[in-house]
Design brief:
One of its GO terms (molecular function) is glycosyltransferase activity. The protein is α/β, with parallel strands linked by helices. It is built from eleven helices and eight strands. Strand 1, helix 2 and strand 2 form a beta-alpha-beta unit.
Length: 375
């Protein structure tokens, strides 16, 4: 057995082993029982905004319409120096829908992370919700998230599940649909073991005492928040019953930009928190976090290395065999446009992760959002 063949096998085994663990987890994990809170405590909803005039009224109306007492909600819109009418429309919406609310306008653009820190610091309630302006909550989403949060003193934060709304089919939207079909089960499995930090930022409910300010210039706000809370000795849980809805843009360039930004910031948050690989953080520190590190940083490079090496080795036997490897690769990649499937989704996400490795330190804490539409 040659050294090259051994390296090829190793590059193949690494991603297969990692994802087999998650495949077993997906098929063995059941959705949690719905937990409603015994009471509906006063809650602060923090909404970071930047040029959200298309959706901010609709967002505040959604807070009014959900199955939660309006009198127990105080909303804080933290505006990142919008250049449109977001601030005026938010103030008008608070009055129109009878919701207690305020708008804080920052002196300069500093990004979502800074807006989250400011909004949570201004909250006067024990429970705080952070959300995005362009998503809407299912009517009981807040109840299920708060019910899970209050079910255990050791739980510091809970995130909800994204239900993607796809307007226009494309390679990437089909990939996203397949990915989302398993994402929640992966995170639920991690939550059942201890915690997950792969949070969905548009619906996070947390105990203010568990929160610490997140880094303002690096890392994703949702992952960074979860990692800080785990640092503080609490668990972070994925609650699939707490659903929210978000449009997935059909514009390939916009979605590619969004996916790469989110992936890069998730990788950055992971890299800045490697001290969590420690027995101090229990099963999260010794199993879940190391497994995610391998998935994010090692598996993509190993996967593409294996494809290249297999095509080379088989091409040495017969040139057509080497070409067949690449034909199979691209057919699998593009098959998602015909029918949403996990194989195509897997390859797309390896591409995003690999490209994102080169973009981690580009200072993407301030960015241009994708198109805004009412859900």
């Amino acid at each position: 057995m040659t050294l090259l063949f051994k390296l090829t096998l190793l590059a193949t085994i690494i991603p297969i082993s990692i994802y087999i663990i998650y495949v077993v987890a997906i098929f063995s994990t059941r959705q949690n029982t719905q937990l409603l809170p015994k009471s509906q405590p006063k809650t602060t909803v923090v909404i970071p905004t930047y040029n959200e005039e298309e959706v901010i009224d609709h967002k505040i109306k959604n807070i009014k319409d959900i199955n939660y007492p309006t009198e127990n909600i105080h909303a804080i819109v933290v505006d990142d120096k919008s250049s449109d009418n977001t601030v005026e429309l938010a103030n008008q919406a608070f009055k129109k829908y009878g919701i207690s609310g305020e708008v804080i306008v920052k002196e300069k653009r500093t990004g979502t992370n800074a807006s989250v820190n400011l909004g949570v610091s201004k909250a006067n309630t024990d429970i705080v919700v952070t959300t995005d302006a362009d998503v809407t909550f299912e009517e009981n989403a807040l109840n299920y998230a708060i019910g899970r949060l209050l079910s255990d003193e050791n739980i510091g934060a809970v995130c909800g599940e994204l239900e993607p709304i796809i307007k226009e089919k494309s390679f990437t939207t089909s990939s996203e649909k397949a990915y989302r079909s398993v994402y929640g089960k992966m995170c639920t499995w991690e939550s059942n073991i201890h915690s997950t930090y792969c949070f969905n930022g548009p619906l996070i409910v947390l105990k203010k005492k568990a929160f610490s300010p997140i880094p303002e210039t690096h890392g994703a706000s949702d992952a960074g928040m979860a990692l800080k809370i785990i640092h503080n000795g609490y668990r972070c849980i994925y609650e699939a019953n707490a659903r929210f809805y978000e449009y997935i843009t059909g514009d390939l360039s916009q979605q590619r930009r969004q996916k790469l930004r989110r992936s890069a910031r998730l990788l950055e948050a992971t890299l800045y928190n490697l001290d969590l690989i420690s027995p101090k953080y229990g099963k999260f520190g010794m199993f879940i976090f190391p497994l995610r590190f391998l998935m994010f940083f090692i598996a993509p490079a190993a996967f593409f290395t294996s494809v290249i090496l297999w095509s080379y080795l088989l091409g040495q036997i017969n040139l057509f065999n080497g070409i067949l490897v690449w034909i199979g690769f691209f057919l699998a990649l593009l098959s998602g446009n015909v029918r949403s499937n996990l194989v195509s989704s897997f390859i797309w996400h390896q591409i995003y992760l690999l490209v994102s490795l080169t973009r981690m330190f580009r200072g993407m804490h301030v960015w241009k959002a994708v198109e805004r539409e009412k859900v």
